[in-house]
Amino acid sequence: MSDRGPDAAAFADTARQYRHFAEREARGRSPLYEALATVVASDLEVLAFLQTLPPAKRQPNLLLAAVRHLFGTPTDGQDFRRRLMSGLAAVKRLMMERSTQTNEPARCATLLPVLARLPQPLALIEVGASAGLCLLPDLYGYDYGRVRIAAEGTAAPVFPCIANAATPLPATPPQVAWRAGLDLHLVDAIDPQKRTWLESLVWPEQTDRLTRLRAALDVACAMAPRIMAGDLRTDLAALAAEAPQRATLVIFHTAVLSYVVSQQERDAFAETARRLAGCWISNEAPAVFPDIAARAGRTAPTGRFLLSVDGLPTAWTDPHGAAIDWIGA
Ligand SMILES: C[S@@+](CC[C@H](N)C(=O)[O-])C[C@H]1O[C@@H](n2cnc3c(N)ncnc32)[C@H](O)[C@@H]1O
């Protein structure tokens, strides 16, 4: 707490969160979101509105998606403010009801080099699966520039991904014998309202990403991957016990463990995943597992996720799956 009191400290924290989002996450990816988050960071009225929400609900992605979901995409900061202020109650209701379950199937492009090197076939468990789009890596196409992998069906999305020379790119997709997901909040890819919310979570200028998301949602509707309601901290072992013995059990997660606030709980989960799985893949912000990041041998490149396999740093990845830089050989 600062000596200006709890309110001033909370305002300053939220302002810092929006400034960080503008400068570290949106810059170079979404000029509109960079501008909107910058406006919020210095707007006392909007910051006051955010203080009426629990801290976990003050996230930039949640506020920006909620306003767009309800009132369409604003043209600039002033337009954003106008839309927000005219519908504060509705925005608050939606932010309380929904969460940032952004499901980014393009992250499969960064998982593929690891999955393809494992003894096949695979049994996949994704914790924090959202609608399960990352559980379908064998059904999408990939364009790594020097290597292209065709999609299963012509309507399936093809994910572009820039891979450094050291990345061991596969020639074919992995064989998946079994798959299941676990998530605190189930997202049914068939439910039109859930679909629209997932679409609102895609940043405004990223129209190609939106097109690929819609195509992946169609694949998920057809495949209906099984997602169980549950908590990764307590329900993983029961799900892992269902996996077939003849396949390599892979437990993985992308952009999930930062939602588990306690480092002790994250480490306990990691221990469980390593004990249960033939392979544990983590694709998260480097701060999520500082011990693993410390072994990566250099400061984390700005805005990158760290992909690790069984606790070993393996690659720096773009958080939305657009690039992979393999570490070492
Ligand atoms: C940002 S989404 C990422 C979805 C997906 N992994 C991807 O990369 O596209 C994070 C997901 O983790 C889920 N989640 C957060 N904490 C969890 C927990 N303790 N147990 C299970 N799921 C959790 C959320 O409900 C949400 O669907």
Can you lay out the helices and strands and say which pair or pack?
Blueprint lengths: L5 H21 L4 H11 L2 H8 L8 H12 L5 H9 L2 H10 L10 H10 L4 E6 L13 E3 L4 E2 L8 E3 L1 E2 L12 E8 L8 H9 L6 H17 L2 E4 L6 H5 L7 E7 L8 H14 L2 E6 L5 H5 L10 E5 L2 E6 L5 E4 L3
Parallel strand pairs: 1-6, 1-8, 2-4, 5-12, 6-7, 8-9
Antiparallel strand pairs: 2-3, 9-10, 10-11, 11-12
Helix pairs in contact: 1-2, 1-3, 2-5, 4-6
Describe this structure in words.
The protein is an alpha/beta fold. The protein has helices spanning 6-26, 31-41, 44-51, 60-71, 77-85, 88-97, 108-117, 192-200, 207-223, 236-240, 263-276, 290-294; strands at 122-127, 141-143, 148-149, 158-160, 162-163, 176-183, 226-229, 248-254, 279-284, 305-309, 312-317, 323-326. The protein has 2 domains: 6-97, no CATH class; 105-326, Rossmann fold (3-Layer(aba) Sandwich), CATH 3.40.50. It has 12 helices and 12 strands. The strands form 2 sheets. It has a 9-stranded mixed beta sheet, with helices on both faces. A 3-stranded mixed beta sheet has the order 3-2-4, with no helix packed on it. Helix 2 (31-41) crosses helix 5. The chain is globular, with a radius of gyration of 20 Å. The mean pLDDT is 95. The chain binds S-adenosylmethionine. S-adenosylmethionine binds at residues 100-104, 107, 127-130, 134, 182-185, 231-233, 254-256, 259-260.
